[in-house]
């Protein structure tokens, strides 16, 4: 049985499973051990990119410690569970590797103390989440969900990067703990406001806040262990974590406070309403997760220590009840083959252990006394009565509480007991210990903390201290209290039970209403926006790629004209133009006249031979001009090249003559549009030249050549010395270009040869 | 002198761009040659025309004084040769193109354009797809 390698069914042997599971277990042990021994906060830092001021800086304070415990604790349960859930699955090793990497990225994220390092791990979680959601990559909906999750969290990641850079520039440091200290003293500049908005977008996409909430339920295409890990306990909490991390710095900003409270409340209420729409147990849980995340964001936005206590408690409680409930949903799927609640009922006989775990976790979710959920309700109630909560948040919280009770009822009671309607249950069976132990243990942990809340006291106090550093010591005690909280809880509970009993009729109502909303909902808008990308790309391609070569030239020329003109216009006031200098002698003027005559004649000629001669006039004119302005070497080169050029073109014309194409194309010589563009191009280039030559002239380089030519290179012709000595490499490059063009031309010319006689071209 | 030179450059650049936008591919190549000549003139003028004397150090002296700026001359010399190679290569391409495509009309060169039945990128207008496809059919 001791199979280290993959067994016949393609799964992993128990040794390898054990080794993988040891990773989070060891991490959990390390976290607990270090936390017990060491004084928080801990910080370490290594220099990474000193030129950019980026250090691998890590810092563990109370909030990080809470997140670390959740990541490694739930991680251990998930690793054990995955081994049982996907036993024999050929992709189990891939899943373990991805989950291990993901855990590493999460640990990096919650311990990073440098914005860039945090962003790096943040992006790693996005990419790994893409790979994990798309684990069943043969299925289309799985790939689509993964793509959607990546698009949204990836876009949010870009916004986050922008926000981080602006925040770092505005506050003068990229170290998070320093930024949080500096921020309250900074004025609300537009840059800082923009940074705030961008960071909010990044955190909201990650934590599935309205209006980016729709990707999370779709991500349920992932295998259950992944959903339990990523989409309940850890990754989606990253956004909340980031907000809580920056809250001491931004807390006083109205935009921050109202952004968090508004988005959080809408998400909480909307998520719960949409949970009623679903029939798939996992999607019901997913929507309630969205709602919980909304509540967390609202709580971060609230002022006062009570709210931060509530954030810490709810973070922990949610991980302890939502992960087991996801495991329960996975067990039901595993045991019966379906997760649709219409086909499930009376499962407690077949799956007693799962039912027990579901009851314990459901009790915590519903906030029953003696569960950790009850402690959370108590704390939240205190936070909201202490802080100034606007009415909508209160209403959202009531909806949230009531529907949470109903969802817990569906997940823990409805599927395991008889209920009105269909109770048909195909052959259900309980999974092995690997499937049962993780949910039971996590749910039991929730109940233990609910009965003895002081166990979590120090942990929550540490997290609270990290979120409200100003407070000397947060005075609170987690204890069992049966005060006004119980009364309000009873009211919520009663509403929840009513919702639970009316689940089916309410579902039918919502389904009808939501079908209408679905067309204008965010998910539909997202799909529309996506389909718009290829369509607009095709349209712009068709608009630009007209298939007319002259139009391409016009497009390039037009772009250059606009760019040059814009540069000239932008600098217009500071430009000065050359003053009129003396009239030159007859030689240069004659040369210029020759050039202009050649250029104009070339435009006006249709006959190819005359066109060629006109172009030759431009070249010879240039040569003459060089001769008269002290550049005889250039002039001789120009004359030589021009002569060879005319010979080459004449032979090309001969070849064209054989093809009966010596005459030019019968196109109109006068094309107004092209003429305007050409004049604009010429004017822009000429203006640029005039402006450039009017400025002062830096002669340092020319002076150097003039001085060093004879002593260093023993040459008196300075131009030649530059070409063959000082800038010899340039000349070598020039020779290479000429040779390369010859090498490229030879095969082209040889292909023309069979046409009887030789001597085409050069 | 500056004004005369600027006017010359203006005329040459304008003529070059105008020819480059022509339908006749031969005129396009000649336009390219004119643009190259204009670019040389721009480069030359940017180095200032300080003296009509060549940049040669007289025998017996060590320093070059009161002569034309040698640096732009060296650059223009290189540019002339490279421009010549470019235009010659364009001419060879042109010959080959005219023989294979049997046309010198730039508007008729549509091999690289989307086919009429392309699902993503149909031609801009129906009149654009009057060219037989694939091009081997025309040879």
Unreliable spans of chain A are 1-9, 757-762
Separation of termini of chain A?
Answer: 80 Å
Largest sheet of chain B: none
Give the total of beta strands of chain B. 0
**How would you describe the shape of chain B?**
elongated
Count of domains of chain B: 1
Number of helices of chain B: 3
What name is given to the CATH topology of chain B? Helix Hairpins
Average pLDDT value of chain A?
82
Radius of gyration of chain A from the CA trace?
38 Å
* Proportion of residues in β-strands of chain B: under 5%
Into which percent range does the helicity of residues of chain A fall? Answer: over 70%
Q: In DSSP terms, counting alpha (H) and pi (I) runs of 4 or more, how many helices of chain A?
A: 29
The structural class of chain B is mainly alpha
Oligomer: heterodimer
Question: Approximately how much helix is present in the residues of chain B?
Answer: 40-55%
- Morphology call of chain A: elongated
Task: Kindly provide the radius of gyration of chain B, computed on alpha-carbon positions and rounded to a whole number of angstroms.
Answer: 23 Å
Task: Give an overview in words.
The complex is a heterodimer of chains A (762) and B (139). Helix content of chain A is 72%, strand content 2%. Chain A is built from 29 helices and 2 strands. In chain A, strands 1-2 form a two-stranded antiparallel sheet. The model of chain A is unreliable at 1-9 and 757-762 (pLDDT under 50). With 139 residues, chain B is mainly α. Chain B has one domain: Helix Hairpins (Orthogonal Bundle). Chain B has helices at residues 2-20, 25-46, 70-101. Classes of the chains: A mainly alpha (762), B mainly alpha (139).
């Amino acid at each position: 049985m001791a199979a280290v390698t993959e067994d016949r069914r393609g799964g992993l042997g128990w040794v390898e499973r054990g080794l993988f599971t040891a990773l989070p277990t060891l991490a959990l042990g390390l976290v607990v051990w270090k936390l017990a021994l060491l004084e928080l906060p801990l910080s370490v830092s290594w220099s990474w990119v000193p030129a950019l001021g980026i250090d691998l800086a890590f810092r563990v304070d109370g909030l990080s410690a809470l997140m670390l415990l959740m990541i490694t604790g739930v991680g251990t349960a998930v690793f054990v569970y995955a081994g049982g859930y996907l036993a024999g699955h050929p992709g189990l090793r891939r899943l373990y590797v991805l989950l291990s990497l993901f855990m590493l990225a999460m640990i990096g994220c919650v311990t990073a103390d440098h914005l860039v390092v945090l962003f790096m791990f943040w992006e790693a979680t996005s990419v790994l989440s893409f790979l994990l959601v798309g684990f069943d990559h043969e299925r289309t909906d799985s790939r689509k969900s993964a793509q959607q999750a990546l698009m949204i969290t990836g876009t949010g990641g870009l916004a986050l990067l922008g926000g981080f850079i602006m925040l770092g520039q505005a506050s003068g440091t990229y170290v998070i703990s320093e930024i949080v200290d500096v921020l309250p003293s900074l004025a609300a500049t537009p840059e800082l406001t923009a940074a705030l908005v961008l960071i909010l977008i990044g955190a909201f996409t990650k934590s599935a806040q309205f209006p980016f909430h729709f990707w999370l339920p779709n991500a349920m295409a992932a295998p259950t262990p992944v959903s339990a890990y990523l989409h309940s306990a850890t990754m989606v909490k990253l956004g909340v974590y980031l907000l809580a991390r920056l809250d001491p710095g931004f807390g006083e900003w109205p935009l921050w406070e109202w952004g968090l409270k508004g988005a959080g409340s809408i998400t909480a209420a909307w998520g719960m309403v949409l949970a009623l729409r679903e029939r798939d147990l996992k999607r019901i849980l997913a929507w309630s997760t969205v709602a919980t995340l909304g509540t967390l964001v609202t709580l971060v936005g609230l002022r006062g220590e009570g709210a931060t206590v509530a954030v810490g408690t709810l973070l922990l409680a949610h991980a302890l009840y939502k992960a087991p409930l996801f495991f329960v949903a996975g067990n039901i799927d595993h045991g019966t083959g379906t997760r649709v609640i219409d086909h499930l009922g009376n499962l407690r006989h077949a799956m007693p252990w799962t039912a027990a775990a579901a009851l314990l976790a459901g009790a915590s979710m519903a906030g029953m006394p003696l569960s950790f959920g009850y402690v959370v309700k108590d704390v939240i109630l205190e936070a909201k009565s202490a802080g100034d909560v606007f009415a909508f948040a209160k209403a959202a919280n009531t909806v949230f509480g009531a529907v949470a009770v109903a969802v817990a009822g569906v997940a823990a009671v409805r599927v395991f007991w008889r209920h009105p309607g269909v109770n048909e249950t195909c052959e259900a069976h309980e999974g092995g210990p690997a499937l049962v132990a993780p949910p039971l243990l996590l749910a039991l942990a929730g109940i233990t903390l609910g009965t003895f809340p002081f166990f979590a006291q120090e942990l929550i106090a540490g997290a609270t201290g990290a979120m409200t550093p100003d407070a000397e010591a947060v005075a609170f005690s987690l204890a069992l209290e049966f005060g006004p909280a119980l009364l309000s809880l009873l009211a919520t509970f009663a509403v929840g039970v009513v919702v639970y009993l009316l689940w089916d009729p309410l579902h039918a109502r919502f389904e009808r209403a939501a079908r209408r909303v679905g067309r204008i909902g965010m998910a539909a808008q997202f799909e529309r926006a996506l389909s718009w990308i290829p369509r607009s790309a095709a349209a712009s391609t068709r608009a630009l790629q007209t298939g007319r070569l002259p139009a391409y030239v016009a497009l390039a020329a037009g772009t250059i004209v606009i760019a040059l003109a814009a540069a000239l216009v932008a600098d217009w006031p500071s430009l000065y133009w050359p003053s009129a200098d003396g009239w030159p002698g007859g030689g240069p003027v004659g040369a210029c006249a020759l050039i202009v005559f050649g250029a104009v004649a070339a435009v006006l000629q249709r006959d190819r031979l005359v066109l060629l001669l006109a172009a030759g006039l431009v070249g010879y004119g240039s040569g003459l001009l060089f001769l008269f302005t002290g550049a005889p070497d250039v002039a001789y080169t120009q004359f030589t090249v021009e002569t060879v050029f005319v010979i080459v073109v004449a032979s090309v014309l001969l070849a064209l003559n054989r093809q009966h194409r010596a005459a030019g194309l019968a196109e109109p010589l006068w094309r107004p549009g092209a003429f305007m563009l050409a004049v604009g191009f010429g004017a822009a280039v000429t203006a640029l030249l005039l402006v450039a030559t009017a400025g002062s002239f830096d002669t340092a380089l020319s002076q150097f050549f003039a001085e060093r030519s004879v002593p260093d290179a023993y040459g008196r012709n300075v131009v030649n010395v530059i070409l063959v000595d000082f800038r010899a490499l340039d000349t070598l490059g020039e020779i290479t270009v000429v040779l390369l063009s010859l090498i490229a031309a030879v095969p082209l010319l040889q292909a023309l040869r069979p046409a009887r006689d030789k001597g085409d071209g050069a | 002198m500056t004004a005369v030179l600027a006017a010359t450059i203006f005329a040459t650049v304008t003529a070059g761009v105008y020819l480059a936008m022509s339908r006749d591919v031969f005129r396009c190549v000649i336009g390219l040659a004119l643009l190259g000549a204009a670019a040389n003139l721009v480069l030359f003028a940017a180095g200032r025309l300080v003296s009509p004397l060549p940049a040669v150090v007289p025998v017996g002296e060590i320093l070059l004084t009161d002569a034309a700026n040698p640096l732009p001359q060296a650059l223009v010399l290189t540019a002339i040769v490279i421009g010549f190679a470019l235009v010659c290569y364009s001419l060879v391409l042109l010959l080959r193109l005219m023989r294979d495509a049997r046309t010198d009309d730039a508007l008729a060169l549509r091999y690289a354009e989307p086919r009429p039945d392309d699902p993503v990128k149909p031609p801009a207008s129906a009149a654009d797809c009057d060219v037989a496809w694939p091009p081997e059919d025309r040879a």
